[in-house]
Each structure stands twice: as structure tokens, then as C-alpha cells.
Design goal:
This protein is α/β, with parallel strands linked by helices and 257 residues long. It has ten helices and eight strands. Strands 1-2-3-4-5-6-7-8 form an eight-stranded mixed beta barrel, surrounded by four helices. Helix 7 links the parallel strand 5 and strand 6. It is globular. The N and C termini lie far apart (55 Å).
Length: 257
């Protein structure tokens, strides 16, 4: 397995797709999340399989640098606007062997600026010491990067990590979105997160929206930032304009409710 992952990295067998993030209040696209894929003809096409294998082989740092480089360069080549959301493992962020300042170099090489980049830390994985992680993130913020906690509610630290890291953006895990219109507990949880975010002066991105019913309930609860298959699927050449049919669907629902 080590040689396979090493070969993927050495030969840059990585592709990147982008999924838009929408501001449904202003009806704009505010950015794109970069999603990395391995070789299409192998099990490593699935990102979970790819990154787990790289972690097991001790090659996570090398893989993440390649994915960041590919995503940043492609974002620039496509001349996409708004923020670029990059997924970064907390383990890599604190790896002493991980090259310092590498992301800044990649951003500058692509002709972008750090204010265009959002560093996403997934809550699906255990975060190392919060104080040490906060110091590491402070360095990113000094250069203008925004910080997001991804998959809120999915894993190890939840609201505690939100309180300690004070991210600019919080992304709610798909679990709380799925069938939320049929689940009173999920509705209460989502409403509480929107209210808490106002107090914390953080933006909330609701990801994983796959149906109109989910979208409409979230809109009624106060959602401003949305992401998911219902709005637009990830693509190597993503949409550039806000899909006008979104508001048409909502208006139709209101008139026929």
C-alpha cells in the first residue's frame, strides 16, 4: 500500500472538484469547497479511503500538500470567485515535519491572496491539544486566512472546540440536515446553532442539503449559507451563477403551503 500511495503522490494522480457555497439571502455564490479524489480506476478515488491509507503509511503530510497545491492552482486557473475552502487535517497542522508556510507559498504562486482562503478543520477526527492548535491557527489568521470547523456535531469535541478555537465559520454535519423537516429534535438543534452563531459572530454553512424539503425548512429557520447536492453537485468546472430556480421553488412552496 505504501508504494501505491507514494506513486499517487509522486505522479500527482489527484483530481479536484469544486462544490459551490451559496448565500441564499443575497443570492450569490460566496465560495467553493475543494474536494480531492484519487485515481478514478482504483479504490483510492474515494477520499476517505485515500486519506486513511496515506495516514496509515505516514504520507498524510505529502498528500495534503499535493491536494492543496492542485486545488489552489485549479481554482486560479478556472478564475473562480469568492473564497476557496481547503480541508486540512489538524494532525498535519501540528506535524513538526510538515513544511511551515507551505500554503502561503502555494497561494502566492497561483496569484491569489490569503484572504481568499478558508482553512477547514474536520471535527470527524480527534483534535490534538486545543491550546497548541489555537496557536497554530493564529499564524494562519495573521496572514488573513479564515478558519472553519467542518462537520460540527459529527465527532469528538463539538461545542467545546467551537468555544476554544472561535472559528470564523462553522459547517453543520450532514447528519443534522438529513430529513430535518421530519425530526423535531434536529429542528431544535439547528435553530440553536443559528442563534449561537449570532452570539459568537460566526457564519454558519449548512452542508449536505439534498432535498427541497430540507432546504426550505433550513431557510425558514434562518439559514444564510448553504451547500449540497440539491443546490449544486461538485464538479471540475462548477457553476458560476446563482441558480434562480431556488427562489422560484421557495416561492411556489409559500404560495401552495
Amino acid at each position: 500500500m505504501y508504494k501505491i500511495i507514494q506513486n499517487i503522490i509522486r505522479n500527482k494522480k489527484i483530481t479536484v472538484v469544486f462544490q459551490p457555497i451559496f448565500n441564499i439571502t443575497n443570492q450569490t455564490i460566496v465560495g467553493y469547497e475543494a474536494l480531492s479524489r484519487g485515481p478514478a480506476d482504483s479504490i483510492y478515488y474515494a477520499p476517505d479511503v485515500l486519506f486513511k491509507a496515506a495516514t496509515d503509511c505516514g504520507l498524510l503530510s505529502e498528500l495534503e500538500i499535493l491536494c492543496r497545491d492542485t486545488a489552489i492552482q485549479q481554482f486560479a486557473n478556472l478564475q473562480l470567485t469568492g473564497k476557496l475552502f481547503l480541508n486540512i487535517s489538524p494532525l498535519v497542522l501540528l506535524d513538526k515535519a510538515h513544511p511551515q508556510g507551505e500554503t502561503i507559498k502555494l497561494v502566492e504562486k497561483a496569484g491569489l491572496n490569503c484572504q481568499q482562503i478558508v482553512i477547514e478543520l474536520s471535527e470527524k477526527y480527534p483534535f490534538p491539544n486545543a491550546e497548541t492548535l489555537s496557536l497554530a491557527l493564529a499564524k494562519y489568521r495573521e496572514f488573513g486566512f479564515d478558519v472553519a470547523i467542518d462537520d460540527l456535531g459529527a465527532g469528538y469535541s463539538g461545542l467545546k472546540m467551537w468555544s476554544q478555537l472561535r472559528p470564523d465559520i462553522v459547517k453543520i454535519d450532514r447528519y443534522f440536515v438529513e430529513h430535518c423537516h421530519l425530526d423535531s429534535f434536529k429542528r431544535k438543534f439547528l435553530k440553536a446553532i443559528f442563534e449561537l452563531a449570532k452570539s459568537a459572530q460566526a457564519k454558519v454553512v449548512v452542508e449536505g442539503i439534498e432535498t427541497f424539503e430540507e432546504y426550505e425548512l433550513l431557510r425558514q429557520l434562518g439559514m444564510s449559507y448553504a451547500q449540497g447536492f440539491y443546490l449544486s453537485k461538485p464538479s471540475a468546472n462548477p457553476i458560476r451563477d446563482y441558480p434562480r430556480w431556488l427562489e422560484q421553488d421557495s416561492l411556489y412552496f409559500q404560495l401552495n403551503a
